[in-house]
Design brief:
single chain; mainly beta; Deoxyuridine 5'-Triphosphate Nucleotidohydrolase, Chain A; five-stranded antiparallel β-sheet; four-stranded antiparallel β-sheet; about 5% helix; globular
Amino acid sequence: MTIDLRIERLKADVPLPAYQSENAAGMDLHAAIDAPVTLKPGDIRLIPCGFRMAVPVGYEAQIRPRSGLASKNGVSMPNAPGTIDADYRGEVCVPLINLGREPFTVERHMRIAQMVIAPVAHARIIEATDLDQTARGTGGFGSTGH
């Protein structure tokens, strides 16, 4: 399935979101910062990506950490995945957190996150006085033995 995603570039030299392989689920997002930003361990900084977009109604943009940054440097997102709704028109920014032990420097144009466009279903809430029974029942975290 392919949809059209309208994007307005805000920084002329910063790459627009792009898939890095034929079957990639997410498009890489790049840092549109004017100067390097160093994240000390535990720091959270909002990093702009240099574009805004019009996500089609019925879809969302999910912003996710890049696995390489997370596994090699401990850099992730505190709200992973983040959601960009179809009615948001501001600049796309990514909150990065340094969960590693060493400072990490974000450079201009660095690939910092990935964006997945996904369909959204809206639920119609139906208040009930009881629910159907299942084998699991009310068992919560860890209740399935895994």
